[in-house]
Amino acid sequence: GENVEQxxxxxSVQEGDSAVIKCTYSDSASNYFPWYKQELGxxxxxxxxxxxxxxxxxxxxxxVTLNKTAKHFSLHITETQPEDSAVYFCAASTGNNNxxxxxxxxxxxxxx
Amino acid sequence: xxxxxxxxKFQVLKTGQSMTLQCAxxxxxxxxxxxxxxxxxxxxxxxxxxxxxxxxxxEVPNGYNVSRLNKRExxxxxxxxxxxxxxxxxxxxxxxxxxxxxxxxxxxxxxxx
Lengths: 112, 113
Fold this sequence. Notes:
Largest sheet of chain B: 7 strands, mixed
Order of helices and strands of chain A: EEEEEEEEEEE
Number of strands of chain A: 11
Largest sheet of chain A: 6 strands, mixed
Oligomer: heterodimer
Number of strands of chain B: 11
Structural class of chain A: mainly beta
Order of helices and strands of chain B: EEEEEEEEEEE
Helix content of chain B: under 10%
Distance between the termini of chain A: 41 Å
Helix content of chain A: under 10%
Distance between the termini of chain B: 36 Å
Strand content of chain B: over 45%
């Protein structure tokens, strides 16, 4: 089955700096890679996703890149703000949510 | 919009006790899921229901049962709770088709002593 590894487990940056979180996956059949943000006391919320026919996707300060050959994908947050502080999860699936596998999560802290 | 609603938010059980976690969604989604979240392990799928009347095992189904009561509601039951089931449980739902966004509830923090 799919195995998703996520690094780093914790990340601390100064407000205004960039943050990068990296994930690798094992199943070459995976074709959907969402990223979720989980704020304290809340459930995960989708912030951006990418499909295997696309190498990069941007949404304002957030971007995701995918390298299918190397089986890794990354989340990039630019101009970080304190409200970006949360736990971020990457995930990979072959197209069905029932086979989606999550990374262990990255706790991002943005210091004012 | 309420989205996905879970009850209770917190629960403490003694080993061997039973309980049911409730989940309801108001987005008319076909698919519903139960996950557990443990430190350093991300979210792991316990059971899912692709449509009303069907349920299937996920990665970690042992010790749990589920019921898809109707299209809105999907419950998770622990028949005889064990300390290893101490976790945060999340219910989620998604619409029809592949690669559709999953919407999560706020979670239930369960402690088994």
